[in-house]
Specification:
The chain is α/β, with parallel strands linked by helices. Helix content is 42%, strand content 19%. It has helices at residues 2-25, 44-56, 73-82, 101-109, 126-129, 145-157, 183-188, 194-200, 210-214, and strands spanning 27-28, 34-36, 39-40, 63-66, 91-95, 110-111, 123-124, 134-138, 159-161, 168-170, 174-179, 203-206. Strands 5-8-11-4-12 form a five-stranded parallel sheet. Strand 9 (159-161) and strand 10 (168-170) form a beta hairpin. Helix 6 crosses helix 8. The protein is globular, with a radius of gyration of 21 Å. The N and C termini lie far apart (45 Å). Keywords: ATP-binding, Nucleotide-binding. This is Sigma-54 factor interaction domain-containing protein. InterPro entries: AAA+_ATPase, P-loop_NTPase, Sigma_54_int, Sigma_54_int_dom_ATP-bd_1, Sigma_54_int_dom_ATP-bd_2.
C-alpha cells in the first residue's frame, strides 16, 4: 500500500513538473499568441515544431529546415542553437545565395595569404569562426556543385582546407541548413547532389505556410 501511495505521489509530481515545463516553454502574450524562442504560432503544426526543437536541440545532428519564404526558418535555426549544448558558442550565418561561385568557398573555408589576387592576408572562413558552435547555411539550395563536394566532406569527416593551403583543419561544428526549395526533388533531377541531401537531411524540419503557423 505504501509503495502504491508513493507511486501515485511521484506520478503527480512528474505530471506537475511536465506541465510547468510546458508553461515555461510556451509563453502566451496578452493577445493570445504563443511565443517560443521568438517564434510566434499556436497552430498544432507549430506545436509539433516546438517539440521537435526541444528534442533535436541538444543533438549534434545536422538539421535541414525547409519551408516557404517568410515562415521563420532562421528563427527555428536560432532556437535549435539556443537549445543546444553549443548555445554559448558562435552562431555563424552565411547566405549561400549572396556570393558568386568564385567567392563562396573562400567565405566558407577561408584562405591563405597570396592564394589569389587580393588575398593580402590569411583569413579564417565561417567554419573556423564557428568552432564549437553552429554554422547556419541559408539558401543551401543555391550552393554551386563544385562547393557541394567540399561541403559533403565537412559533413562526413568534419575536415576542410583553406584555399591555397594543404593543411587539413578539423572543425567541431554543427550545421543547420535552410532552403525554400524542394531539395529532395532537386536531388532526383540532378540539380543537387543526392548524397549531400541525405547528409543534410538527418533531422528534417518542414515549416507550415505562414498563414497556418499564425492560425489558432
Amino acid at each position: 500500500m505504501a509503495r502504491l501511495i508513493l507511486s501515485h505521489v511521484m506520478d503527480s509530481i512528474l505530471r506537475a513538473i511536465a506541465q510547468e515545463e510546458e508553461l515555461r516553454r510556451l509563453r502566451v502574450s496578452p493577445g493570445g499568441e504563443v511565443h517560443f524562442c521568438g517564434i510566434v504560432g499556436s497552430h498544432p503544426s507549430m506545436q509539433r515544431i516546438y517539440s521537435l526543437i526541444e528534442n533535436a536541440g541538444p543533438s549534434d545532428a545536422t538539421v535541414l529546415i525547409q519551408g516557404e519564404s517568410g515562415t521563420g526558418k532562421e528563427l527555428v535555426a536560432h532556437a535549435l542553437h539556443e537549445k543546444s549544448l553549443r548555445a554559448s558558442k558562435p552562431f555563424v550565418v552565411i547566405n549561400c545565395a549572396a556570393y558568386p561561385e568564385t567567392l563562396i568557398e573562400s567565405e566558407l573555408f577561408g584562405y591563405e595569404k597570396g592564394s589569389f589576387t587580393g588575398a593580402i592576408k590569411t583569413k579564417k572562413g565561417r567554419f573556423e569562426q564557428a568552432e564549437g558552435g553552429t554554422v547556419f547555411l541559408d539558401e543551401i539550395g543555391e550552393i554551386p556543385h563544385s562547393t557541394q563536394v567540399k561541403l559533403l566532406r565537412v559533413l562526413q569527416d568534419h575536415q576542410f582546407e583553406r584555399l591555397g593551403s594543404d593543411h587539413t583543419i578539423k572543425g567541431d561544428i554543427r550545421i543547420i541548413a535552410v532552403t525554400n526549395r524542394n531539395l529532395e526533388k532537386e536531388a532526383k533531377t540532378g540539380n543537387f547532389r543526392e548524397d549531400l541531401f541525405y547528409r543534410l537531411n538527418v533531422i528534417p524540419v518542414e515549416l507550415p505556410p505562414y498563414e497556418n503557423a499564425k492560425a489558432t
